[in-house]
Every structure is written in structure tokens, then in C-alpha cells.
Amino acid sequence: MIAFVIRRLLGMLLVMFALSVLVFLIFYSTPGVDPASRIAGRNADPETLKQVRHDFGLDRPLAVQYVILMKKLFITRDLTSFVNRGAKVVPQIVDAAPVTLSLVFGAVILWVVLAIAMGLAAAMMRGTFVDPLLMIIGLIGISMPVFWLGEVVNLITQSRLHDEFFSWLPPLGYTPLTEDPEQWFLHLLFPWITLSVLYIGFYGRVLRSSLIDSQSEDFVRTARSKGLTERRVLGRHILRTSMITFVSLFGLDFAALVAGGALLTEVVFGLPGVGKLTYDSLENLDLPIIMATTMYASFFIVMANAVVDILYGFLDPRVRVA
Amino acid sequence: MSEVAAIGDVGQQSARVVGRSPWALAGRRLLRNRSALIALAGFIVIVVACCAAGWYADSVAHTNPFVSTVDGTTLIDGKQQPVMVESSGGLGLGVTPIGPTWDIHHYFLGADSQGRDVAARMLYGGRNSLIIGTVSALLCCFFATLIALIAGFFGGIVDQILSRVLDLIWAFPVFLLAISVSTVALTSDIPIGPITLSAGSIWLPIIIISVIYVPYVARPIRGQVLSVREKEFVEASIGLGASNLRLIFSEVLPNVVTTVIVFFPLMIATNMLIESALSFLGIGVQPPDASWGTIISDGQGLLYTRPWVAIAPGIAIATTVLCLNVLGDGVRDALDPRARLRVGRR
Amino acid sequence: MRHYRKPLAIAVALAVAVGAAGPAVAKTSGQAAAAKAAARAKLMAEHRGGTFTMLAKGAGGSLDPQINYTLQYWQLYQSTQDGLVAFKHAAGTKAFTLVPDLAVALPKPTDGGKTWTFKLRKGIKYSTGATVQPRDFLWTFQRIFKVHTPTAGGFYSGLVGADKCLKTPATCDLSKSVVIDNKAGTVTFHLVKPDAEWLYKLAVPHASVLPWGTPNKDMGTKLPPSTGAYMFTKYDPNHELVLKRNPNFKQWSVDAMPDGFVDSIVQKFGLSVEAEVTQVENGQADFLFDFPPADRLNEIGTKYPNQVHINTLFADWYAPMNVNLAPFNNKLARQAVNYAIDRNAAVRIFGGPKTAVPSCQMLPPGFPAYVAYCPYTKNPGSGKWTAPDLAKAKALVKQSGTAGQKVAIVGANDEVTKGMLTYLQSVLNSIGYKATIKPLSSNISFTYIQNTKNKVQISVSQWYQDYPAPSDFLNVLLGCGSFHPGSDTSINISGYCNKKVNADMQKALQLGIEDPPAALKLWTKVDKATTDDAAQAVLFNPRLIDFVSKRVGNYIWSAQFYTLVGQVWVQ
Fold it and tell me: How far is C350 from chain B (nearest CA, A)?
């Protein structure tokens, strides 16, 4: 176990290092991205430009700039944004994280429960009209761009039907759980629904397929021959081993979302989470924040995959992750 | 059940039974699957319609959907009316394109913010979307399966390295790359060996999308490979002296291929949508060319007035994916006899 | 000025107005002033209180008044910071008048226009409680160089010794040119040469006063001390910016820094523009800083007409063409583009005829020296644009020999600009070019199109006036001195440099001091000449649409700083 943990930690460091270098290189090889003139302000004269460049260390060689950036991000933790000058990057992420976590946890509960229900129902009722109906509903879900769906939800709940049906819905934004639980819930209700719609269809289909595959396994035949009902067979015996694909996907998606992958949902619903931070930093080409959010993302992703690998052992005891 | 009966008849008709290859059996099963055939037909109709885009635009709608006609007019209810209507109420602010006329010869689905015929653009756009969506999904599933098989089967250091590479890809800030690549390609086309790619080349989004989703398909399959690797029939094959290659491709792969088949149409839908984001950032389909994704993106700016511009491509994507899903199910059922025999119903 | 950014070069015509404003102000009778004050007091009693909520897509950057260069915060600084002089808080073009602010009166320069002495008001306090001292001004002007104010070189290099300050800001010492007399309570500026625009340069936030000892580094998100009616109390660039009443403020001049009606102003960040419009419609916010999206214009124009304000701007949307690069190094090709563009179509893409007016020339209507002139239309002669002339355009392209060439149109990737780019692509294709569009992130696009290294052939850009002087459009955008090859800041985007026209421009600047009417005549001639040379294709003059919530009252539009946010009331 210790060896496993150490191996994974090493792997994480390698991934983060490689990513940081890639991000840095990509940023600086983009033409027109030179921060100096944007920092200096419109129509700054050449002297001012030179001074600004020197102040921000932009006239040093790239390798030196990289080291300084990393040092400021991880060691001294006083890295500041290029665009909102003086605003420290790390506290921004720390402030934004609870918002994203709130969004993701709610959506996750919703989509996991519904996807499992959908997958089970589709597999159990294979051959009836329920199966294709659920499939169609799921497919509509994944064919909608999240940005569009979010805007439509806003159009209906905030604009067109706001006064008639949705006057209880607060305006877009976020209220911390510790401040006002009811408002926290109401602010997040539609973002949860919007975000989970995209995943329910995918996960439902995947689970249905895994369940159907498992039904032909030998241990299932054994369970059936013991006289267990189909429902028992599915629920207690098949479901667990069928969850491998489901859980693998989940690890990837959960990590990506927590790390800021829900950026379009956050943007549309005005939630100031890590995703919105990422989105703004891309719009503004704010390297410090881009770097910080990428590092944050890679940490979660490697961690999540390690946890999933451990989970494989629980779901299917035959599996040993070498 | 008929196959079981046929085998049972061997004793009586041994002289005349002709053995069929598994593929032929699969094919027959597929042909008997009515919903799969309907889905296949549906998909073919979509492809043909998109190929006929040129004919539709020239002969039926008489429009050029790549030219901005902000001041154009068209025939609605027998009168020539402007395609972009200036607001006449209140303060007279804003200009709204016409909505769907449901007249197949004149702006069937209405106009977009440049006054172009949305229906014609949908057909042209289908070509780009179908190509980008299916090719990238194919590449993605292919490479993902390959990587998953190798990583899951061999384990150890090979698995470690491949898994970390997958982590790297999954954590990669794709949109930063997209902005960078598009700006670079703007100044000068990108040479890759003998080929030069311009920002408008559809190979850019195909490559980018297939690469970034490899982890998404590879990790679940790797998980399955880890599971299948431990099964008895694999041990049996090892006992028989099978080489690793044979084990991977003859024993493990067939057991994970059903998952790949399920993933494939789902990835097509996802890829078509990601393509729109990339195109917005300047990679891939460039104006005035269209894809379903770019039409959705155009429709974002018309959501409050002309929602059909965004809904139509969404329906198109959903229908295409639905057909492929049903077809995929049919193929999976046809290839795996056990699945059908075990289930007690139809 | 580019929208939301302000490079200020100053008006000569206005300098004349300033000179005239002095005695005019003094002539205002005591009776009229008292009546005005009483009326205002009544309004104040009725409407005082409440919070004015503004929405903006994102924060405006550093809060340091000597660094920030965005309209978003300059709109707020006019209610929080004071300089020696200020633009009058009044409606429309009345806001171009300068009035004394921290100074007692507008001085007449001596020594041939090189020396300006200001007598300071006494007893003005900062929000921190400290009193404004004469030596604060020395600190303020030295700080301009130490923190690298964007306009340090452009505006304030006229001070004696400023050139040394530009080169080595760390040791900047302006005590010889910003002379403080504590006993007399005066500040005297010594300039290297006469500057008729010096007062304007003192009226912008970059020259607003800060206490002696303010650290010489970018304040960033720290709150600056204020002398105005409001002060900043909170700044979180991801959430909001909060202003509250300055407890140490006592109104001394209703024109320069009036007391405000609302108790607090909050600017919230983070919503999409569509969401902002919806919130203002629902009364959940009072004002949005961003332009309403095109698909909401009809909605707000029909459902909420009383809450919409359409304001005339002195601004252009135009397409500069690179005169040093094929195919637009050929004048016939540039003229062809001008003939081919259907400016009505461009106006429609922008939002319809109520939101913009087609134009062929740089100077906007109503501007000093403006005389309607448009040769690029069917049936020219009236000076107005009526219709494109595609036939002529195609002929010109053929004649120029540039037909069939590849052209890339560059611009920002926001909805409206992208629509313009797509439309222009269609036009260029129709006259014989092979056009593609390159929309870039708006953060890159403006500097990208200026840098000649990027070989941009044609782009789409905007320019908003800073002050009503023809030089702001013509000399800044088309003067040889504004062209810096290879630099990210080369605002003469097309690289146009016509020696004769340039000489005329410099002469007009000179004449502005000696013989203003002659100067205006010369500027008209320059406007005509540059339109004929077609270094750009001007598309239209946009209007600004402000959408406020139902409860907002006393909405005043100032031609200088646009919405006077410090003057609205909400109850």
C-alpha cells in the first residue's frame, strides 16, 4: 500500500511538472500575447513599456520567468494576477473552490442516482418500450450543449416565466452555505439540474450496457440457479461488478468538474467558482491564473484516478491493480 | 432460438446442414433486428440529405447560405419581405431575422443574424459535423482501446507510464491550446512534416478532439481489461500456451468491445459539441462555412428571439446519435449471442 | 479613445472655451445660484438614500487612479477623486466645460503659457481623515512617473525635468517644476513649452490628488483614499466593488463634485450580459455597464421604453486597411472596399438604424469641423451615404490588378464584431477577393492589429472621442507620429502617412492657439483628404444604449464620462 501511495505521488509530481512547462511554453508561443503592453495600458509610450516589462520581470529569459512563477505559486504563495493587479492568485482559488464543490456535489448526487436508476430500469425492462424511451431521453440530454441548456433554463426561469412561476427563485449568483442554507440551495437548484442532465444520459447508457454484459456471466447463472429473483440478482450481484466502467468514468468527470470543468455552467449561472476563474483567465490571457488552475486540476485528476484504481479492488475482487 | 433448433436438427439432416461462419450468423441476426434496420435507414437518410446540400441550396431554396444577405428579401405568404426585420414597436431598437417559414423553398427554418438560410446551412453543416464527429470518435475509440489493452493487460511500469500520460492529457487546458494554435495558425500555416495545416483545416479539430478524449474512453476500458484479465478463460488460454498478443486480441478484446461500441455513438455527440467550442476559438470550421456546432453557436446570440436556430442543430445531433446508438445496440446484440439467449424475453 | 480605454490628447477648441468660461462662471448671479441650490436641496431631501447596483461582466483592473485606464472605473472616479480642475458634472456637451475643483479658480497661464499657478481650497479632507496639503500635489505628480502611469509620457512629459523622470523614475524629483508654497497655499507648474491643453490633463483621474507618502507601487486591489462624495470600501475583482458615502466630504462645488443621492454604489461582477439585462428588467439590479446584446434590443425597446436611454456618441466603427501591405497598398483597392460596403447592413448587424448612423468619414456629425462628406455612395454629392456601388467597386478592383488576392480580416471575437467580420468577408468575396476572417480574443486583438509584425491587412476597430477636438480623430489616428512599426502600441493602425496631409494637421494644431476658426477650416480639409485617401473604411457612428431599472431617476448623460453614476437616485 505504501509503495502504491509513493508511486502515485511521484507520478503526480511528474504530471504537474510536465503540464506546467507545457502551459508556460504554449502561452509564450502565442503571438500577440505579450502581457507588457496590456499591463502598461493603452497607448503607453516606449519608455513606460520598458519600465513595466522590467518591473514584471518580463525581460528575463523564459526559464528564469518559469522558475519565478512556480516559486511564487507554490512556495511563497504571493503570485498575483496579470490583469487584476495586486489580487493574489491562491486566495482567489481558495475562495472559488467551495462554490465549485457545492455545484459539483449536488449535481453528482443527482446524476449518479438518476443514472443508476435509468440504467437498471433500462436493463431490467429490456424488450419493452421503456428501454428505448429512456435511451432517447438520455440521448437528448447529451446532445445539448450545456451553455445552451443553461441559457434556456435562465430564459424560462428568470425571464419569461419568472413572474408567473418562478418568483421564488433568487437572481443568479451564489450564497455560501454557511451564510444562508435556503438561498444556497435555491441558487444551486437549476445549475445542479442543468449540469446533471448532460451526464445522466451517458452514464445511464454505459451502465445499461455493463449490466447486460454481466447478465451472461457464470456467477450470475449461479445466483439465478439458486432461485434468487431477477431483481435481487441485478441489484446485489450484477450491479457491483458492472460499476467498473461507471466508476472509471465518474472518477474522470468528477475530477475534471471539481477542477473547473463546469466552466460554462458557472458562467451561465453566474457562480464564481474555479470554472469561472478559468474561463475569465482564458479570456484575459492571465497566465498566473491559467497556471494555477491547471495545477489545481492536475492534482485532482491524478488523485481521483488513484482512488478509482483502489475502488476497482472493492467492486471486482478479482482485480488487482499491479 | 432458431439457431438452437437448427443445431438440434443436425442429427436428422446431417447431410444437408451447412455450417455458417459466426460473421454470417451475426449478419443474419442484425438483419432481423427491425429497430436496427430502421436506425440504419435513418442514418443513411441523414447522410444523403447532407450530401444533397448543394442541390437543395441551388435548386430548391435558390439561396447561397455562405453569403451575408442582411438586406435581402424572400417570398413569404406571396409577398417579398425583408429577411432581417427592423423593430417597429416601442423605441424601434434592434433587428430580428425572420423565424421558420416552414416553406421548403424559402427559408424553411428562418434566417440567422447574417440573413442566411438556416436550413441550407444545416445541410452543408451536417457534412462537416458528420465527418468531424465520426472520424474523431473513431480515432479516439481506436487509440483508447489500444492503450487500454496494453496498459491493463501488461500492468506494472507500462501501466504506470501510460496512466500518467492519460492523466496529463485529461488535465490539459485544451482551450488555451486552441487559442494559441489558432493565433499561431493565423499568422502562418502550421507545417507538420509534409502537410501544412491552416486554421481552417478540419484535421485540427479532429486531431485535438480525438486526443483529448482518449483518456475518457481508455480508462473505463482499462478497468474492464483489469477485470477480464483475471477471468478463467484467460487462465485457460494461458494454460494452453497462448502468446500475449493472442490473449489480448482473441480473449480480452472481444469482451471489452461491447463497451467500445456503446461509447462510439456517445462520443460522436460529445465531439460534435466540442467542435463548436473549438470553432468559436478559431480552430476548424471557419465562417462562412458551417457545422451543426457553429450554427448552435450562432443561435446563442438569437436565443431570446429565434430559438430555432439553436434548437435545429441540437435535434440533428440527437437524431444522428440516436440512430447510431440503436444501430450499435443491434450490432452488439448480433455479435454476442450469449446476451440474447440468456435474457428470458424476446 | 477606444471604448473603455482613454488615451487623452486634449482639445484646443475647448481651451478657448475654458478661457471664456472663467468670466462666465463669475457672472452667474448670486440669486440664480441660490435658487438652484434650494431646488437641489429639496430633491436631496426627497430622494436621498438607497443603494445603486451596477452590473459589469468583469472587474476593470487595478483600482489605482493613476494606473487605471478604463471607462468602467473613470466613471466612478469622477465621484471619488478630485484634481485641481474637473469636467463639469452636467448633461451632454456641457460636461466638456472645465471648472475649478481643488483649486479655487481656473488660472490664466503666465510666462507665455508655460507657468500655471493654482490657489488651493482649504479644509478639504481625504476619506482617511487627513487634510489635503499643497505638498500632496508634488507627491502625486512624481508618483505618476514612479508607478508608470500610461499617460506619463503622453501628457505629463511637458513638466520641466519630466524627461529625466521617464528614464529613471526611481529618482524622480519634480520639486523644481511642481513648486509648492505652503504659506500662500499655492501649487505652481513649470512647463517646458506652452501647452494650451494643460488644464485638461489636470482634469483626468491620472492627475487626481493622493496623500503625501502614498506608496509608489500599483495599489492593485487596495482602496485609494478619496476626497470626493464617495469612497471605495471593498474591492474583490471576482465579486464586487463597493462605494459608500465619504464621511469626510462636504460639498464645495456642485459643478465639480456634487454630493450624491444614493448612500452606496455597488458594482457586481460575474454575470453574462444576457443575465445582466434580465436582472435589470426584473428590478434585481439598476444598471448594466455592458452593451445590451443584439437579441434583447427589441425586447427592451418595446417592453421597457421608459427605462432605455439612447445617447449620441462621438465615435466611429471603422475598418483600417494596411497601406503598406498588399492588396491595400493600392489606393484603388481601398476605394473599392469603401464603395462596396453596404453601411446599412453594417448598421443592422449592430442593432438597427436607431442604434447607429452610416458614415464615410472619420469626424462624427456634430463634431467641430465636421462637414458631411461621402464620395463612396451611389449618387454622391449630398455628403450623405445612401447606397453601395458594387459595380464601381468591382471595376476598381479589376483596375487595381489586385483581384483574386487572399485577404484576412482581423477583429475581436465578441458577437457584434464577429458579425461585422463575417459581413465584410462576404463583401470582399463579392468584389473579387478571397477573404477569410480571423476573430481573436478581445484581449489580444487590439494590440495584435496595431503591431505591423503581424501583417494585418484589414481589421475592424472602434474609436471613441476623448474630447471634442478634430485632432483626437485625425491626428491621433492618421498622423505620421502615431505610427510605430513593430510596436504593440501604434494607434495609426493603417500606417497611413501622407506628408502633405500631416503638415496640414500640424499647422491646424498651431492655428488652434492663434486662429481657431481657420484651424477648424483646415481640419475639415484634412478630413476630406483622408477620406479620399481611404486608408480606412468608416462604417458608422454608434450610439450608446443605457438600460436602467424602473426605480432609477435623475439619469444624466455626460458627453465626457457618460452616465453620471454619482447623480442617480433610486428612491
Answer: 8
Mean pLDDT in residue range B304-323: 89
Strand C308-312 versus strand C536-547 pairing type: antiparallel
What's the pTM value of the predicted model, to 2 decimals?
0.86
CA-wise closest residue to C205 among C258, C144, C121: C144
Q: How far is Cα C33 from Cα C543, in angstroms, rounded to an integer?
A: 34
From CA C213, how far away is CA C85, in angstroms rounded?
Answer: 22
What single-letter DSSP state applies at residue B302? T
C51-56 and C264-269: which strand pairing?
A: parallel
Provide the pLDDT for residue B226.
86
Written as nine digits, the cell of C280 is 435589470
Amino acid at C211: P
How buried is residue B232: exposed, middle or buried, by Cβ count under 10 Å (0-12/13-18/19+)? Answer: exposed
Question: Would the CB atoms of B286 and C436 count as touching at under 8 Å?
Answer: yes
List phi, psi (to 5°) of B54. -60, -45
Contact C67 A48 (CB under 8 A): no
Mutate to test the interface with C, among B68, B175, B201, B309 (most CBs of C within 10 A): B68
pLDDT at position B15, please? 56
Q: For the complex shown, is ipTM > 0.90? A: no
> Is C430 in contact with B90 (Cβ distance < 8 A)?
no
Q: Distance between alpha carbon C112 and the CA centroid of its chain, in Å?
A: 29
Per residue in C388-403, pLDDT (tens digit) is 999 999 999 999 999 9
Higher pLDDT pick, C81 / A232? C81
Measured CA to CA, the distance from residue C211 to residue C128 in angstroms comes to 10
How close does chain A come to B202, measured CA to CA in Å?
20
Helix spans in C120-208 (H): 135-146, 162-167, 198-203
Phi-psi region of C164 (alpha: psi -120 to 50; beta: other; left: phi over 0): alpha
Core vs surface per residue C135-172: b (16+ CB within 10 A) or e = bbbbbbbbbbbbbbbbbbbbbbbbbebbeebbeebeeb
Quote the CA–CA distance of A300 and B171 in Å, as a whole number.
9
